[in-house]
Amino acid sequence: MTPETLMRSVVSAFAKGDLRPLVAAADANIVWKSGATKKGPFRFGGTYEKTPGLLEVLLEISTRYTFRRFEPKEIVCSGELVFGLFDVELDYRNSADGRLEPKPVATEFVLRWRVRDNKILEHQAFFDTASMLVQQG
């Protein structure tokens, strides 16, 4: 499988709430970096390492967000590196404010992966944090 095909299949499943392809494709020593480099307004900020770190960040993300759309606009590969630009729509839930209805959020994500032997060694996400915070309220 090419890195592009791997990214397309993992992201497609992720958009449907199926995290199994991502977990299966992640190397045991994966390094996961968020677009928000430190914890703060985004609970999933920072760097997570290895399988336990991956599971931790996925829990942090799924606690607040449900992805409705994660559509590729462009995916480019160069050797072990694959970059993807995606249109993303998700629902944000903030149980702390007592709101029952999720707020819709739309943005673009850029994902950068280092892939070797069909395993994701590194993941880094980039997104417009200010726009997301404004949309979340």
In short:
The protein has helices spanning 3-15, 20-25, 50-64, 129-136; strands spanning 26-33, 47-49, 65-78, 81-92, 103-116, 119-127.
Secondary-structure blueprint of this entry?
Blueprint (H helix, E strand, L loop, with lengths): L2 H13 L4 H6 E8 L13 E3 H15 E14 L2 E12 L10 E14 L2 E9 L1 H8 L1
Parallel strand pairs: 1-6
Antiparallel strand pairs: 1-2, 3-4, 4-5, 5-6
Question: Could you explain the architecture of this structure?
Answer:
- By secondary structure, the chain is α+β, with helices and mostly antiparallel strands.
- It has a single domain, classed as Nuclear Transport Factor 2, Chain: A (Roll).
- 31% of the residues lie in helices and 44% in strands.
- It is built from four helices and six strands, in the order H-H-E-E-H-E-E-E-E-H.
- The protein has helices spanning 3-15, 20-25, 50-64, 129-136, and strands at 26-33, 47-49, 65-78, 81-92, 103-116, 119-127.
- Strands 2-1-6-5-4-3 form a six-stranded mixed sheet, sandwiched between helices.
- A hairpin with a 2-residue loop joins strand 5 and strand 6.
- The longest helix has 15 residues, at 50-64.
- It is globular and about 45 Å long.
Main features:
about 140 residues, alpha+beta, Nuclear Transport Factor 2, Chain: A, six-stranded mixed sheet, 6 strands
CATH structural architecture: Roll
Largest sheet: 6 strands, mixed
In DSSP terms, counting alpha (H) and pi (I) runs of 4 or more, how many helices?
Answer: 4
> How is the CATH topology named?
Nuclear Transport Factor 2, Chain: A
Helix and strand content put the structural class at alpha+beta
